[in-house]
Amino acid sequence: MLPWRSGLNEDEIVRVKELEKNLKDKYQLRLAVLDQEQLVGWTFGWQDSGTTFFMGASIILPEYRRKGLYSKLIEKVLEITNLKGFQTVTSCHIVTNNPVIIAKLKHGFSISSLEMDAVHGALVRLSYHHNALLKAAAKFRAGAVGEAKIKQLLDRSLEQ
User: Fold this and answer.
1) Which of 8, 123, 145, 155 matches a 20 to 30 Å C-alpha distance to 110?
2) Tell me, what's the pLDDT at 92?
3) Spatial distance between the Cα atoms of 127 and 113, rounded to a whole number of angstroms
């Protein structure tokens, strides 16, 4: 990880801390995976906007991988964020982190962008939409569904 904060002067440090205070009341979620009482994995994330939750980081200890624990974390995050009312869940991953990207794709996430980050390098952003209209709109924008599908969902939502 690029230690970009180490290059800040005192005034910049103060300003960054002030900005970070603005985020103090946003929703945060932390989940742990335990084997008996031993911590073997975790995830945490936060409210990125009024309707978007960002899955910031997750880990499963190497000896506990490939046992479905990460999938269970994804499922729990999606369950909780849906109950809280978030419309979209996003995450960013190093583009070569295939196990995590594949796991998220299997759970209904879609690739929504590629990004270049000064700290982390090349990243893929994944998005999951709880909202069916947003999900269909994302597919429409990518050319995966036609306009008729969007109209059908709009008509259905207007009827309710």
Assistant:
1) 155
2) 97
3) 9
Using one digit for the tens of pLDDT, what is the confidence trace for 126-153? Answer: 999 988 888 888 887 777 767 777 677 6
Find how far residue 73's CA is from the centre of its chain. Answer: 12
Do residues 33 and 73 touch, judged by C-beta distance below 8 A? yes
Q: By C-alpha distance, which of 125, 129, 72 is closest to 101?
A: 125
Q: How many residues would you count in the chain?
A: 160
CB 112 within 8 A of CB 137: no
CA distance to 12, 102, 138, per residue, from 129 (Å): 36, 17, 9
Confidence of residue 47 (pLDDT cuts 50, 70, 90): very high
